[in-house]
Every structure is written in C-alpha cells, then in structure tokens.
TrEMBL record:
GO BP terms: copper ion homeostasis
NCBIfam families reported for this sequence: ATPase_P-type
Keywords: Membrane, Translocase, Transmembrane, Transmembrane helix
Protein name, per record: Copper-transporting ATPase 1-like protein
Domain of life assignment: Eukaryota
Length: 166
C-alpha cells in the first residue's frame, strides 16, 4: 500500500551502485567507491559493515543529500548442491577461481566456506576480462561462469563461457 515516488536523474554505475533523485532528495545506494564518488564517508558504519561482510553478506551504503543514512546487507544463499559440485571439480583436478564484485571480506568469507582455491573481490567487469586473459597467458584453459551482462566480455574471452540465469 505504499505510494512510491518516481525517481529522476537515475544512474546505474556498473558494479558500484545507483544514484538519482527521489522526492527532491539526492540518493545514492552502493559500495564504498560510490560513496567516495558522491563525497560521503562510510567510516561511521565501517565496523558494522565489515562484521556483516565476514558472514558472507554484501553491504551497500545509503546516502541522502550528501549524508550517510545507513546500510543494507544482502546475501545469496549457497545452493545445497554447490559444495558437492565444487568437490567434484576439485577431484577432477580443476582449480577454482572466484572473481566477484563483492567486497574482499565477503569474497574471502564465501571462498573459505566453499574451499575455493583463489578469490578476487571488488572486481569490475574489465578486471574479470583481464583475469581471464592473464590465466590464459599462463597457459591455462579457462571456463568461466557468469550471471550478468557485466560478465559478457570475460565470458566471450574464456575458452568456455557459461552464462547462467536464475
């Protein structure tokens, strides 16, 4: 039953968040990089954010009119089949690398929970492409799974690209 105001001047920054104006207020919702871009310090909530990230959650900060208002933490449930699938891949001699736009603390928490061999956090789309290129230059055959349009360049560059939906 909420009446929602229509956003104006909406911008989506790839991998960092969104910003725009709602009901005359300038809003920004995203990571630390976005907060820096809009001139807002996330320091007052840093300890709380890091504690949430250590559990595997992704944290977004909310700023309104240039003032930090709070944070939002979200996390994806790890599918019940994932540990077994990763164990099967490891048993086949594959090295598992995770590259995510999530913060490094979040990435490390998820990587440790799943036994992932190499973890990269705060990775932008161009960085994913560079990672695939580097691994191939080392002589590795790269299979990459991705779930978004931001993964498209790296998926195309990989020897095997696996585009995932829901």
């Amino acid at each position: 039953g909420l009446a929602l105001d229509k956003p104006e001047d909406f911008e989506s920054g790839s991998g960092i968040g969104v910003r725009g104006r709602v009901a005359g207020r300038q809003l920004a919702l995203g990571n630390t990089v976005l907060m820096e871009q809009v001139g807002v310090s996330a320091d007052p909530l840093l300890a709380q954010a890091e504690a949430l990230r250590a559990t595997g959650a992704s944290v977004m900060y909310l700023a309104a009119d240039g003032q930090l208002q709070g944070l939002l933490a979200v996390s994806d449930a790890i599918k019940a089949s994932t540990p077994e699938a990763l164990a099967t891949l490891h048993a086949a001699g594959l090295r598992i690398v995770m590259a995510t736009g999530d913060g490094m603390t979040t990435a490390k928490a998820v990587g440790a929970k799943l036994g992932i061999d190499e973890v990269h956090g705060e990775v932008k789309p161009a960085d994913k492409l560079a990672l695939v290129s580097r691994l191939q230059a080392e002589g590795r055959v790269v299979a990459m799974a991705g779930d978004g349009i931001n993964d498209a360049p790296a998926l195309a560059k990989a020897d095997v690209g696996i585009a995932m939906g829901t």
